[in-house]
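Hi support team,

I submitted a single chain yesterday and got back a structure, but I'm not sure I'm reading the C-alpha cell output correctly. Could someone confirm the output below corresponds to the sequence I sent? I've pasted both exactly as they appear in my results page.

Thanks,
R.
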Amino acid sequence: MDARLNFYSNPLAAKLARHINSAGKVVSDSSLPRTTQELVKLRASQINGCGFCTDMHTKEAAHAGESTLRLNLVAVWREATVFTDAERAALELTEEGTRIADAAGGVSDEVWANAAKHFDEEQLIALVSLIALINAYNRMNVIVRQPAGDYQPGQFG
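Hi R., thanks for writing in. Yes, this is the structure output for that exact sequence:
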C-alpha cells in the first residue's frame, strides 16, 4: 500500500510538520508524565483507525520501557487493572475529546472534573493540547492512507 501523498518529500508538508512538531515538543517537555502521553497518543490513534500512529506510538512506548501487557490493554483500559487512576482519567478524556461528534455535549463535566483531580493546570493544558495534536496527526495520516508497520523508534528524531 502506498500513501496518496508523500508528506516526507513535499516542502509544504515538511513546513507544516515542523510547526506541528514544535507544538508537540512543548507538550512533551511539559510536566505531563511521558507514560501518560504515550498512552493518550496510542488510544486516540486506535479510536481514529490510524495504523501509522498506532504503529509509531506502540513502538515508541515499548522502546521507552512500557510493558507489552499495558500496551495490549490500552484498547480495553476500562476493564484493565494495570492503569493508574490518573492514566484512566487521561484515557477517558482522550476518548471523549477524540469522539466529540459522538457526544452531543462534547466532553462531559464529569470527565473533565475527574481529569482535574489528577492533573494540575499545566498538565491539563498539555493533555488537551496533546489530544488535539494527535487527532490532527491521525486525520492527516488516515486521509492520505499512510501505511503502517515500518516505523522505527526515534525515526523522526
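A quick pointer for reading it: The mean pLDDT is 94. Let us know if anything else looks off.

Best,
Support desk
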